[in-house]
Write a structure and sequence with these properties.
The structure is a homotetramer. The first copy, chain A, is an alpha/beta fold. The first copy, chain A, is built from 16 helices and 22 strands. Chain A is about 40% helix and about 25% strand. The first copy, chain A, has a seven-stranded mixed β-sheet, with helices on both faces. In chain A, helix 3 crosses helix 4, helix 3 packs antiparallel against helix 7 and helix 8 packs parallel to helix 9. In chain A, about 65% of the residues are buried. Chains A and B meet through strand 5, strand 6, helix 9, strand 19 and helix 16 of A and strand 5, strand 6, helix 9, strand 19 and helix 16 of B.
């Protein structure tokens, strides 16, 4: 099995490391690549390449940087089916899900390509006798982008905003799903980025540590678990870097009596089980008011039960979880939930896919559970969802308040006032109203609260431009006229 | 000597602490007040009062919050002479300097009173089939404002933006100059802030520690020395808080051959010695190109030598330094500089003010010095400035690059291209072009780089609004039409 | 009866004109002042004074202009009760209505006082090799503000944005209600505006003609009837001026079955009869779906019937119409409506106020009417409202589409989707959702469509800043570095 | 010679008109196409097609509209050489000039493709008790784009912003250079615009009249001569439409003693004679201060004399003027100037191009002339430029002030204060500092003053978004929670 290569200073180079990890197709358990744990020297080389490319790239006219991004956007658009297939293979998501991700990812690049607009500074003449004041936004240097396995195209493409602003980047994809990033970098290579502006370094936690503590790294955009996000944020802060670290989630979907169940149900099922529930916007706990609880429960269980598993989406609706460890963890959590008193409404543990018996399959699993149970309170990256009957939305808001996460929350209602009140009161970063997966479009920022986000400026959009630049103020006057 | 009171939950209360420090008039060495080191319980009470006031205040219509700020602005405007006199007494700055600070401080409140404009969120309809996306800015809770002694009115009034956004605040003024903040709080009390929205807690480092680590504090705005700023930033980050921490500075003023010396010289002298050199925007090291070095040196020394000392500005141009410790430190630095080879061009150590022999007087002191000497490289809060001849602006930029600070830098030139190039290349937060003290007007943000600033979002203006709020995204659709 | 004076070039001067009109208290028919029709020479003098003051005022630092507006805001706030009483006397509105208008008017000045923020231009460095591009906003010169009788404080204060931007103004109040503007100008005089920046010229249509065609007037903000607005807009356009002309309205309030009648009814009654129905945001035609029509009709007629008339609001809820002509026109319209088949549900024609028998009293009048009837289709400035039963909101939207006006439209509903759909589809400038009088707060622009607005940029807020300024682009590079 | 076709409702159709005009290659005088004068019925059909396509297109999600623009951008980028050749043939500009125009034109589409960002509305919660206010930007309907001959690709592509906002368009190219627009429309056809969103109608003044007065046209973007611009603006205003009409120019280039002549001269020559002086940003009158007048004059005449003529730019530097009429007009103006006393420094009237003797050739012509002479005061679209010695920049500013045009003005200086003062004082829409052709990059608006622009909102960039949309304000509250 050939090892994947790092992309450093414009060259694809094999790591000298003997350490590394297998990349496996989660639907088949077959190894598809070897992801090396890059050595300190290699990480250093990537950072160094980025640093060296920075002065010229940041001094490149903004319209030229934009033109490179337009080119990248076009090449990604043209390669969409190919990249989607890579994602299916290394991540296990369905092909249509992969296409959906690519559509979203293109919008990241599209927003970043508006950089001449986004980078505009501000000027005020004659703020006091003959004195003008202005600021422009300056790029900062080298940024590290550390991505998780679940969106192998979208998150690495956070680098679009970083480079659009004039920074150079070192991208570290998940060691579970590095192939998509490698392919994206191959395409980027053809778009006109100067050598060293975009680098890809493979590896795991030690690479992250090195990136987070290296004095030539100006900042880091991280997406991963809450504990990792917190650790990265604290380390980066101690080392004088900017950091925006997106952590985990436990999102609540609240179903009220005025919800239009026929229309909301498919949306809710998708939120709960789309991407095999491995996304931070996934609905985890469904809270339904007593008036509609039973109907909702029965229809939800029935709809979830109809989901078929498979390795691509020829008729499939859900793929495997990412790894055997993940599968085993999910099994253990179900067991533990039962011991805590949760009631199994739908049990996906026996799920099999005949054609691929070795895949990490887990069928949709639904538990009636309560706050205080681990399965209700903790993040679980896999198709195990909780159901609970509640008295009213006040109870829902209390439950959400007590959660250690603050990523998103959703209400299903047709009442304007109910939606408004819910949106105002829940302490989360994103609110969905009849939208189970309230992932904002690329030109809006994404973040969270409590354990779901560490940092000040959110990811993506205009917040990203603020994050990847520093304002420089100039105060001026002239005497000889 | 009566102890100053804390302002907690709308009440002025005497601290139970026996610890504390004397507040002395630096011009006379007379004690004018006693500043207690508030106890843990009192700090807790202040935070608690702020926390309790938060829900109602953040839910108050933004136009009503603005109206309170308009009221505050008016009362501060009316009380300007009175507050200026307090500043003269506790800080030692000249009366006209104090009036100048108040003018600036008023503009802080003015910008914050534009909060209905500044707080506008964003909305996009139909971003995909029938789905709308929006964000609004939400206040975060309790913010701590920790202020230094040198601008006793301006920095505490950072709280204007915090409360305008809907947060509540605990303000900790410098224990050296707490009276101004106390007076401002008395005025704020009359403006319509609900109980607990604005609190003042007196004390020193232990109070800061408690504020920085308390779980009910959402964030902290700090201005002080670089080492304190860094410590506060790291502590706040470890405790999951937002922080913006402004540190020290060592600002370079670069004089080029095209400078209009007649007009630049007074500006340069003011930058160097205004406020007894105790401000982060003060020019510290004057670098003049060889072509004009001698003329500049002679005129600068002559102008500085003409500065008279005194406790108010009836004909005075410079006040004392803030404390006896500060005075002694400055003396020691001058001594040390001489041992390192610096040449004394003007020696202020013998300065006396007959009427007030006990004041902490130090006359303008000018040294010819070089990088590598401590007096050239380190911040020195007092009227000791360095002069150096340079070959060209490239050398100036190199010197600035090697400085551990990145607050501001100034060039005196009439050449557009020289100014532009300098502004583009220096790695600092603020650049002055023929403006020796490039403090941006209140509606522009202020920050720095390297050891001069720890954080992402700058202080004041729109950055402050971003800092004091979090964006909440709502994604919505409706079915029943 | 003493004649009111013009305010020209900082002096209060009596008009030489023998022409003019009586200002009468609509509640008593007593003459309270004489409003001269200023001569051509006087109008010329006002424009000339404004033109002369322009260079210095537009070159005044923006923070100083803002300070004048803060002062104006404070003086207006302090004089609120006094100005409200003037409005009661000359306009007939209730005292609490007058206080409400002043609250709104203050917010105009508040938003304009944010001018340092609002006037910020834009800068982009290095848009192509070494070339920078920026724009700043420049004031244009003299603006005319022509105000109607119904909001004697608010509309003249449109001048706040004009002068904040650096323009000078000639304000022409309604000849029916000029006293409020005169008083506002007296207060403005004390705030620090240089001579000639604010001028008040009294008179009627000929003055407007002169302002609209004078070569030294850069633009005009007009509020009045649709026919006058159109004429002013066309004349101004022919003479190369900017114009924003707000015309009349015929606003529809749509009541749906999900409306919360208990809460909406007072709101609806206020929209219909507040300010004696003399405002462009007044609800004119109430359209209720059949399911709730009868209940709504009965309760609306009953609530309207309970409104008492009176000259101040000690227990009063509606004042007189503005003039005898207006009263007679309303009577004639009611007569004509009856001949067209409208059914009188409530007849206010017999209304009397014992204490003031000579006032222009007309009680709330409600007709069941249909599109095609003049009373349903045309604007009627007085308390004569139409009711109609409709099948559904589609029919309402069709009726609104066919109206020649496009000012505002309101829906009463608790269904989020119904509100959203209505807001999206109605072709008007402002939409109310459970808000009968959807007058946007001062920091949002106000405008209309079809015959309700002539122009491109709306009134107030950021649109006003765009309207009162022109962007100047500077493209620059430098060679000698 | 085959007639060009209209593009109406997605179909390419031959006009029924027998009227029309020849399209000739200005370099050869050969006819290359026939441009029909479309009939009233055809114009009606184009408007009608646009109107019908509007509801669906304006309701298309903004990200989908953006995707169509990204596609258009890519197809235009790919077709750049081909389109450039068409421009060379019909317009006579050099191939590299045509490529330059295409580069600019691409940036128009790029900025418009940022429409999801640009179209963001504004939202404020709780502006008063429980009331929210927001606005969104709505498309208006059908816009007409009327383009001149000199930039056959750029100006028609103004439609990018119009359609990005959700409007449909009828584009009328110049009858002298319609082929480029036809080709652009062919490419647009492949990009996914629904039928009728983009239409092209051929013809001359009568078509413009019909567009300007048609009730289904919401607004018009026009670029042409000042007299035509004024007429179109007035007609559009009378017919209740929005209009932005860019007119002619007479731009002054001011050379000061500090100018870096070696670097400025090529820039100045290009400004004066680039595009055969047929562009609104062309430098017309060169004003040099006496200190450098003679040197500037001699070097300018010498450099201009070295320009060679030719029909493509294999070694060529200037093409022909657009038409025989234009050539004859230029000859007549030169004659007239001589009679008025202008002194001919360089006479281009005898210019010949051997290979293409029939082309409309006029060599660079330079006159010493004075204000008051027609050649100095009036726009002249062809390579006839004036030179004048001035005392100082004050005199230059006076000359610019007295001009009836206000498009742009340029200063060559290395002094920051001189540039700043000039930029501040000249009453024009664009200022160049050492940039002879201060055409702002596409993401900045372009406009002018006096006879150079009629309208309020400028062309392109964010102003275009304001122009092509109307804000709709929604004020809302809810009762049932």
């Amino acid at each position: 099995m050939q090892a994947l290569k790092n992309y450093i200073a414009g060259a694809w180079t094999i790591s000298n490391s003997s350490e590394g990890s297998e990349v496996r197709n989660p639907a088949t358990d077959e190894q598809i690549a070897w992801c090396p744990s890059s050595t300190d020297t290699e990480v250093e080389a990537a950072i160094s390449a980025a640093r060296r490319s920075f002065p010229a790239w940041s001094a490149t006219p903004v319209t030229k940087r934009a033109a490179v991004l337009f080119e990248l956007r076009q090449r990604l658009a043209d390669a969409t089916p190919e990249i989607a297939k890579i994602m299916v293979e290394e991540n296990g998501k369905g092909y249509s899900e992969a296409l959906g991700e690519m559509g979203r990812a293109l919008e990241y690049v599209e927003h970043a390509s508006a950089i001449p607009e986004l980078l505009k500074g501000s000027i005020s003449e004659n703020v006091s006798g003959g004195v003008d004041t202005q600021y422009v936004r300056e790029a900062l240097g080298v940024f590290a982008i550390v991505a998780p396995f679940n969106f192998p195209a979208m998150i690495p493409l956070y680098f679009s905003w970083a480079v659009a602003c004039g920074n150079s980047v070192v991208v570290k994809p998940s060691e579970l799903c590095p192939l998509t990033t490698v392919r994206i970098a191959e395409l980027a290579e053809q778009c006109g980025f100067p050598t060293g502006v975009v680098n890809v370094i493979l590896g795991g936690v030690p690479v992250v540590h090195q990136l987070t503590s290296h004095r030539d790294v100006a900042g880091i955009s991280f997406v991963g678990s809450s504990s990792a996000a917190e650790a990265v944020y604290k380390s980066a802060s101690q080392h004088g870097k900017r950091a925006q670290c997106q952590g985990g989630a436990k999102n609540h979907l609240v179903v009220t009596e005025s919800a239009h169940l026929d229309k909301c149900l498919p949306n809710l099922v998708n939120s709960a089980f789309g991407q095999a529930s491995q996304r931070c916007f996934a609905g985890s706990n469904i809270l339904a008011v007593a008036e509609c609880y039973e109907e909702l429960r029965d229809r939800f269980v029935s709809a979830a039960g109809a989901i078929r598993l498979g390795e691509d989406d020829e008729g499939m609706t859900m793929g495997p979880v990412i790894s055997r460890e993940s599968l085993e963890r999910a099994h253990a959590e179900i067991e533990h939930a039962i011991t805590e008193g949760a009631k199994v409404l739908l049990d996906g543990r026996g799920a099999r896919v005949e054609r691929n018996p070795g895949g990490y399959w887990l069928g949709p699993t639904i538990l009636e559970a309560e706050p205080g149970m681990r399965v209700f309170d903790n993040e679980l990256f896999g198709p195990v969802r909780c159901l609970k009957s509640i008295r009213n939305t006040d109870e829902a808001i209390e439950i959400i308040d007590r959660s250690s996460f603050g990523h998103s929350a959703v209400i299903y209602t047709e009442m304007g006032g109910v939606a408004k009140e819910f949106a105002r009161r829940v302490n989360v970063g994103q609110v969905g109203i009849n939208v189970g997966t309230p992932a904002p479009i690329a030109f809006y920022p994404v973040g969270g609260r409590k354990a779901s986000f560490f940092g000040t400026l959110r990811g993506r959009a205009n917040d990203a431009v603020d994050f990847y630049t520093d304002k420089k103020v100039v105060v001026s006057t002239w005497h000889a006229r």
